[in-house]
Amino acid sequence: MAWVRRGVDGLLSLLVALAVVGVMAVLAWVLGYVSYRGGTQILRGGWAIFTALPPAPLGGVGGFGPALVGSLILITLAVGMALPVSVLAALYLSEFCAFSWLVQVLNLGLDILAGIPSIMAGVFIFGVVIVHTRTFSALAGSLALALLIMPILTTATRLALGAVPGEIRQGAWALGATRWQMVTGILLPQAWPAIVSGLTLGIARAVGETAPLLFTALFSSYYLPVQALGIPALFTQPLASLPVLIYTFALSPFANQQDLAWAAALVLILCILGLNLLARWGERT
Length: 285
Hints:
Order of helices and strands: HHHHHHHHEEHH
Membrane topology: Multi-pass membrane protein
Number of strands: 2
GO cellular component, one term: plasma membrane
Pfam family, one: BPD_transp_1
Structural class: mainly alpha
CATH topology: MetI-like fold
Radius of gyration: 23 Å
Protein name: Phosphate transport system permease protein PstA
CATH superfamily: MetI-like
Strand content: under 5%
CATH architecture: Orthogonal Bundle
Keywords: Cell membrane, Membrane, Phosphate transport, Transmembrane, Transmembrane helix, Transport
Distance between the termini: 47 Å
Largest sheet: 2 strands, antiparallel
């Protein structure tokens, strides 16, 4: 029956190879089509497409400058919120929590939070922030994105801290280091490359999310002003972002806005692809 086993092995190997080829073909088709449609529009608009305002219906090429800047603002604020909370939470789970059952419960909560639909983060922030402030804002949008980054970053940091050899901890104790001296002087520097990789993966997930921003930051065709009525505009004004621009203009009946959506989609895909490659490179180094 050896020939039967060899036949089954060959068939399974063929199926696996076909599955891989199929997945790669779909990926290549998507990337190729988006690159063609988006690249054509970027070449048509030139460098101005990265700074200009979105076009009016039946207008010219326009650009996605406010959305590009808005996405950078949202991600920067989200990282500023998620990074300290995630690192401190991971330190507590890895180094300070004395109850194993609590660690298991909190880890389960992190897994659940990482798996919830992103729209739930937007609905939650809408109910907690938008309902009370009565305005969409960049701050609310960044809070929603921070909720998506935190479970990924916390888990990555906890695993990185757990991977630090026990001999290093014992050496620090032997030299008379306090717990916080060991954490800040030894554990965090050792785990920092893995923490950065986890942060990069979290950003890669958050940067392409549309649903939570529809409930929090909404959309704007203009750059965010510094202040509105004497209050920082981050707290009072809706903010443009690349994912919401793509969603809005893809549904537009006007060809020039649809073309701009393809260009923004290409930029967003390249950003996500670059972030994922950077995270993989960080894990290997």
